[in-house]
Amino acid sequence: MPRQARESSGTGIYHVMMRGVNHQNIFEEQEDYYQFLNTLDMMARSYEPDGTPSGRNYTLYAYCLMSNHIHLLIRERENNIGMAIKRIASSYVYYYNHKYSRDGHLFRERFKSEPVNDMAYFVTLLRYIHQNPVKAGIVNSVRDYEFSSWREYEDKNSTLFPLCDTQTVLNRMSFDDLNDLVNNPLTDDVSCIEIEDVSKGRPSDDQVMGLIKERTGATNSNAFMQLPDDIKRPILMELKGRGASLRQLERLTGIGKSVIYRLSRI
Questions:
Q1: Which of 11, 32, 80, 94 is the most buried (most CB within 10 A)?
Q2: How much of the chain exceeds pLDDT 70, in percent?
């Protein structure tokens, strides 16, 4: 069956979601998040054959990097959206595979996207993207999450990688008004492209990793595996009680399903 053509945007602006193949993590350590931000910066730059800067391949308005997926609010320019995302993904996968001595795909082959054709939905997406970590239970406030673009809107000079065109938004509304909107939770009936294809009641990967970090301090599967059994056992029992599947826990913690089953029943 042929793929459905990607819906094009009249403004050139898209909400893009990239996720790890089989829901796997695409960021294991803090360095990986910074590398992806650096990739976004590098891939946006366009150069003449002699190395002279010549413009931008795309413009970013917002981003949020979660452990196993990424949200971008992006406008195509010299690169169309497909080419822009391909270049971003290829560069990061090369880094990731080299670092972790692996081969093959990291992202799902076909990223999700939706066109953004009016200012009202653009603002809705600014809220939705920046509220992702709060909704996942990782932080209590939008401003507390390190790997989103919200800090650029608060103070562009305070960020290590100022990547976004924040002025286009702030020319249309005051920061105070935008701040109120972004920190006012969206209702459940707001429809945007989603990350999880899981049944209702099951925690997302980000919720699982957020709880593991909160309870144990471990930020990736390698760190979690090194913990003593008497520390791992209660968190695995709690996560199972919240609806996490053995397969999901195996993928996120690096511990085999049989071991998880034994630990969570002792």
A1: 32
A2: 91
CB 260 within 8 A of CB 241: no
Please provide the DSSP assignment of the chain as one string.
Answer: -PPPPPPP-SSSEEEEEEEBGGG--S--SHHHHHHHHHHHHHHHEEE-TTS-EEEESEEEEEEEE-SSEEEEEEEESSS-HHHHHHHHHHHHHHHHHHHTT--S--B-SS-EEEE--SHHHHHHHHHHHHHHHHHTTS-SSGGG-TTBTHHHHH-GGG-SS--B--HHHHTTS-HHHHHHHHTSPPPTT-----S----TTPPPHHHHHHHHHHHH---SHHHHHTS-HHHHHHHHHHHHHTT--HHHHHHHH---HHHHHHHTT-
Q: Cβ distance 205 to 19 under 8 Å?
A: no
d(CA 191, CA 189) in angstroms, rounded, equals: 6
Average of per-residue pLDDT across 226-252:
83
